[in-house]
Amino acid sequence: MSGQETKAENLSLEAYKALYKIIRVILQMPKTVSALQEIVRLARPVFIFDNIILYELEIDQTLAPTYARSVGRGRSTEDDMVWGEAIAREIIQAGEIVEKEHQTSDIKPNRLNQQYYLGFPIKKNQQITGALVFIRFGGPPYLPEQIQLAGLIVEHVEQLLERRYLVERVTTLEVERQFDRLQENFVATVSHDLRTPLGFIKGYVTTLMREDAQWDAETRHEFLAIIDDESDRLTELIDNLLDSSRLQTGTLPIDPQPVQVGALLRDFIQRASNGNYNLQFRTEIDPSARSICIDAGRIIQVLDNLVGNAAKYAPGSTLTISLTWEAQQAHISVRDTGPGVAPEHIEYIFKRFYRVRPSDGDARGTGLGLFICKQIVAAHHGKIVAESVFGQGLAFHIYIPCDDFLSESTTQIQEIFV
Ligand code: ADP
Q1: 359 partner at 20 to 30 Å CA-CA among 111, 150, 351, 374?
Q2: Start-to-end C-alpha separation, the chain
Q3: Longest dimension (CA), the chain
Q4: What ligand 1 atom has the least distance to the C-alpha of 356?
Q5: Does residue 412 surpass a pLDDT of 50?
Q6: H or E segment at 101?
């Protein structure tokens, strides 16, 4: 506890009852701030104060006010933070209760010029971690019984903070555990996905190099085509991994230029239709020649990903790519007629490494594609959402605002791991 020996025996009946209620609040209210609010409400009738400020020491030893409440009239807590902080520093240095009177000489009403501070150190495992400061304007000075009651309240605030610390620790451990698990899955998936194309490349190259075998031109061409395909797959995987790590560090380069979205989409669909996809393409493009500021390469990367996914997970389906202009945004959608995604998975498919069926037969992947799409669209201040009728298809809707707001060449994206 905070320096002073505090016992509840000498308290008045009212103070004792208030203390009892405060203890119950601490046991019942899981949220620190709501519990503090309630403690202030219960304590105030038996222990008059105008402001209460809780300061906590940060890792770098700076003091941060983590809770402040003004219950008296005519003052705002901010006015007293500075002074409260000076007292809090004194308490932390002395390691004991500090009681102080402070007279200001401004022209505010008299009562407010005379401030009585009562501050207690806050401890965790015998270490001082902060201070709780009560401020009363215009007196009277704190009575011994009030100091005793405040001391008991502080003990319970310490318990409350201890509980918050434990909850935070458990949460951190859970996130760390989850992250470790993700890392393990990631390493397993990525090494498998890197090894598979590498294995093919190595196998076909070794076969072609055999001196005891002759290959006709057609077979050689077939082998080389496989090596070519698998090298492309490797490049794509490595690009995805790089993008994903740039997203994690917040340095995905975005180079926005005015682009006619309709023309961009028509070119893209033309190219995709000539590609080797097992899909029927349909287009519904608004004919207007409107431009918005986007990084065309990155938006094409998003579309490539969605088309690639449709080919993997909805082969043989009709893929409709449409563009409409809404109030202040372009709305691009990519809709297939494949199996779709079950409702319980839909909210997760944009998460890093998330795959609906982790070992999806021929449909290889790492669960990075949609995560990257989401981040790229977010870097354009837009959003991407998925809509699925299970068994009937999946649609992705991309909304990009029309304002010419993208002027920086690099966006800062904050991403947590799950
Ligand atoms: P990957 O394809 O590498 O697994 P993505 O992030 O691109 O990763 O996609 C995440 C998951 O979303 C996929 O594993 C798949 O289960 C599901 N998915 C994506 N696109 C489709 C689609 N068009 N139809 C059905 N499922 C899809």
Answers
A1: 374
A2: 39
A3: 105
A4: 16
A5: no
A6: strand 98-103
